[in-house]
Design goal:
The chain is α/β, with parallel strands linked by helices. It has eight helices and seven strands, in the order βαβαβαβαβαβαααβ. Helix 3 packs parallel to helix 4. The chain is globular, with a radius of gyration of 17 Å.
Length: 244
């Protein structure tokens, strides 16, 4: 029997790498994202995985996700990875209200819509939910107020759901990456020549992260290897939180 895992933001970066790791470990990824072109390309890399292109930041996503998974034959949804997210850098003083609205809709509400849409199926399998948060949700830095606050909310959502959904034996955990080489950092990459070399000194382990570093942690939480873990906020950050 298939073991399906729904992955959002699956067209590139961490979401695509998570999907590849899931497939290698015997799961069947279901891909969700905004860019149809990226999803089509990802599907070809993942044995023609099923995919859905939609805007996860709107309430319509709830119905679209429900319909998408309902149409999967022999559905056996054992996991959900809420990975979709975005960042726009701005100081609090300069940020307009749209900045905060954007971060909450994209980073928090998207996870709420997807979790609600998947919940009945996850109850059947006593499945696992993994939220992709950030070290900035644990320790913010300047010019990331909107993003950092939204990821702090994601951490609180993770632990709130871990409590409530424990009644159904559903586990809910979060992975909190540090600086990872993904398209979400394209603004920083465009501003800093050799950006990974510039930033590596801030990492005790001497390098920025790669999507595969995060994917391994995500798959641990999806698998039965983490059957006694819930409500965990796990930094995968090269040790950057150790810096003052």
């Amino acid at each position: 029997m298939n073991k399906h895992v729904l992955v959002t933001g699956a067209g590139s970066g961490i979401g695509l790498e998570v999907s590849k790791k899931l497939l290698a470990d015997g799961y069947t990824p279901l891909l969700v994202g905004r860019s149809l072109e990226k999803l089509e390309a990802a599907s070809k890399q993942l044995k023609n995985a099923l995919y859905l292109s939609c805007d996860l930041s709107t309430p319509l996503a709830f119905e679209e996700i429900k319909e998408f998974i309902a149409d999967v034959s022999d559905l056996n949804l054992v996991g959900l990875v809420n990975n979709a997210g975005a960042i726009e850098y701005s100081s609090f003083e300069d940020a307009d209200f749209k900045n905060f609205d954007f971060h909450f809709k994209t980073n928090v509400m998207s996870a709420i819509y997807c979790t609600k849409a998947s919940l009945n199926e996850l109850k059947k399998t006593k499945g696992s939910i993994v939220n992709i948060s950030s070290t900035l949700g644990l320790k913010p830095i300047e010019n990331t107020s909107g993003y950092s606050v939204s990821k702090s909310a994601m951490n609180c959502l993770t632990q709130s759901l871990a409590l409530e959904l424990s009644h159904y034996k559903i586990r809910v955990n979060a992975v909190c990456p540090g600086i990872v080489n993904t398209p979400i950092h394209k603004e920083t990459q465009s501003q800093l020549e050799n950006w990974s070399d510039t930033l590596k000194d801030a990492q005790p382990l001497g390098r920025v992260g790669e999507p595969k570093d995060v994917a391994s942690a995500v798959n641990f939480f999806i698998s039965e290897s983490s059957s006694w873990a819930t409500g965990t906020l796990l930094p995968i950050d090269g040790g950057i939180l150790l810096n003052g």
